[in-house]
């Protein structure tokens, strides 16, 4: 009522109030960001990765090529006006863009045949819940110049986008956006940069490298050690970097995987969940054991690499997934880190 | 075992003694040197233990030392060992010290990728002991700010509301807008677009003297800035 007689200032402030009452996605976004930056403790517990139902329904052969490869991690803001029906068009546009970049300054037409080929395809089964957007894969292939029938396409570069259990981000984003916050790339850095530039220009998004700090690496070590494995393919290995001059030293600590699992079982209390206390206790046991033998305080150094039979991760944002069964579980944690970095 | 008590000795005339406890020797030395360089009217004695034997409390009882006015526990967020060391040392401090004579200093929050301690862990610790927490990085700007804050606290001056009241301030990384001479800060946030403070933050602003707009007016404006902190501090406003 007051607004009819009020001064322009009052009108502005009442408009401002109305603006905040409606729960538009933008407002939800601001609220979630405010909540994150306020004093909220980290989730003290996370679920131990399990084999998801969606993944079980799909043929493991489809995603076998994702395993045993080193992926560089990036976090990606939501893509604007991305459509899964236009994948072929995107492939040809990206192909032209790459050709143009490689031959800077020369005119390029879309559809011309060059010796590289780009494919966009969806990855079925790479999601946590039905609500997650479909994961999709981008590959740069080289075409053989021979005119023979069966030309072999050699994969030069692979990159894939996924979102596993990304509910916290999906709730706050409007219809025009596609949320695939986790991007994994394998191949030459130059190709990653070119593909990244094209995506940033076309879909108004932003890539940033996803580093994994020591705190999260120790969570990964605990969670992956907690996973039940039929057979262990590799030892559980940790790598610490000791800050000293002139060159930093590295300390590598390898444990038999069954011993690590036995240690975890003695520390673990709640079935199905991992808590902060259990992670701290697990790592403290390793530190004190090392100190007893070598009189070195590993807690004063920086954990840079964790390697288990499930997966291995490096602090620079490199990951290698070794076990198909826990692929979704590993990606779920990485998605959480990517979403946290975007926020 | 000797426990540190705040009032077991006579205070010195125009002096304040600050005890720095932490495992990072080089860091403590730098902080102590920076504090001693401050252009202070009265004497400021720094009595910091960083020798190999006493990186932590308890202090040896046979040494003749003045009364400790302020204890700053320095934690390096990149090293869990420094946090464990501080937690051990806290047991040797008398409870009455925590009525405004203890502070926590967390270093290295700016380099998120190197952190092995979560920010909330150290925040919870400071909360438990009802003491102020400073996040700081090794930059000249934040050093100066911190030195001044410590100095004021040690002198027990009431113009430092951010230390006498148990609320926390976030400092790093600090930047200065060169034309206005205003000192700002925000949370150590990876994205520049979002600068929402998570704790009641201190707003310090000072106007650079005319004709010296581009010279960092640290020395001359420092007093002005701290004395006017009460007036301009949004945290102290209702």
TrEMBL record, chain A:
Tagged with keyword Nucleus: yes
Keywords per UniProt: Centromere, Chromosome, Nucleus
GO cellular component: chromosome, centromeric region; nucleus
Main location: nucleus
Location in or out of the cell: Chromosome, Centromere; Nucleus
Pfam families the record matches: CENP-L
Keyword Nucleus: yes
Cross-referenced InterPro entries: CENP-L (IPR025204)
Family: Belongs to the CENP-L/IML3 family.
Protein name: Centromere protein L
Native species: Nyctereutes procyonoides
């Amino acid at each position: 009522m007051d607004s009819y007689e009020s001064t322009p200032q009052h009108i502005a402030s009442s408009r401002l109030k109305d603006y905040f009452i409606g729960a538009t996605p933008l407002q939800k976004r601001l609220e979630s960001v405010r909540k994150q930056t306020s004093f909220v403790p980290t989730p003290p517990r996370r679920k131990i990765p399990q084999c998801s139902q969606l993944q079980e329904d799909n043929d493991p052969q489809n995603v076998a090529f994702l395993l045993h490869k080193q992926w560089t991690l990036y976090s990606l803001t939501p893509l604007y006006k991305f459509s899964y029906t236009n994948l072929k068009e995107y492939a040809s546009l990206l192909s032209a863009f790459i050709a143009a970049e490689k031959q800077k300054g020369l005119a390029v037409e879309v559809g011309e045949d060059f010796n590289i080929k780009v494919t966009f395809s969806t990855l079925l089964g790479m999601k946590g819940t039905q609500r997650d957007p479909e994961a999709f894969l981008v590959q740069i292939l080289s075409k053989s110049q021979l005119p023979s029938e069966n030309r072999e396409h050699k994969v030069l570069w692979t990159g894939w986008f996924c979102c596993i259990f990304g509910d916290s981000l999906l709730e706050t984003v409007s219809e025009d956006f596609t949320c695939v916050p986790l991007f994994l790339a394998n191949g030459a850095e130059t190709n990653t940069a070119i593909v990244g530039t094209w995506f940033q220009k076309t879909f108004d998004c932003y890539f940033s490298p996803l580093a994994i700090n020591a705190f999260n690496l120790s969570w990964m070590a605990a969670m992956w050690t907690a996973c039940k494995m039929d057979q262990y393919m590799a030892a559980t290995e940790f790598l610490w970097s000791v800050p000293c001059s002139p060159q930093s030293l590295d300390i590598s600590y390898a444990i038999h995987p069954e011993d690590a699992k036995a240690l975890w079982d003695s520390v673990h209390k709640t079935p199905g969940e991992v808590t902060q206390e259990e992670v701290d206790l697990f790592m403290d046991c390793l530190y004190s054991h090392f100190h007893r033998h070598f009189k070195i305080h590993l807690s004063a150094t920086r954990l840079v690499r964790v390697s288990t039979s499930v997966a291995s991760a490096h602090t620079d944002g490199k990951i290698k997934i070794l076990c198909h069964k826990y692929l979704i579980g590993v990606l779920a944690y990485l998605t959480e880190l990517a979403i946290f970095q975007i926020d | 075992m000797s426990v540190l008590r705040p009032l077991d000795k006579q205070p010195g005339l125009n002096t304040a003694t600050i005890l720095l406890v932490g495992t990072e020797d080089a860091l403590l030395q730098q902080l102590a040197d920076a504090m001693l360089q401050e252009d202070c009217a009265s004497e400021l004695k720094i009595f910091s233990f960083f020798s190999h034997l006493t990186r932590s409390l308890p202090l040896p009882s046979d040494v003749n030392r003045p009364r400790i006015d302020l204890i700053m526990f320095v934690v390096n967020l990149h090293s869990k060992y420094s946090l464990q060391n501080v937690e051990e040392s806290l047991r040797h401090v008398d409870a009455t010290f925590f009525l405004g004579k203890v502070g926590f200093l967390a270093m290295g929050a700016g380099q998120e990728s190197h952190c092995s301690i979560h920010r909330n862990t150290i925040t919870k610790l400071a909360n438990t002991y009802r003491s102020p927490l400073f996040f700081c990085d090794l930059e000249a700007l934040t050093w100066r700010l911190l030195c001044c804050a410590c100095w004021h606290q040690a002198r027990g001056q009431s113009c430092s509301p951010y230390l006498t009241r148990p609320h926390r301030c976030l400092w790093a990384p600090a930047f200065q807008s060169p034309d206005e001479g205003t000192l700002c800060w925000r949370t150590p946030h990876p994205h520049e677009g979002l600068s929402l403070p998570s704790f009641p933050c201190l707003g310090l602003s000072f106007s650079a003297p005319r004709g010296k707009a581009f010279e960092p007016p640290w020395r001359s404006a420092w007093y002005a800035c701290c004395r006017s902190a009460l007036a301009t501090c949004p945290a102290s406003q209702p």
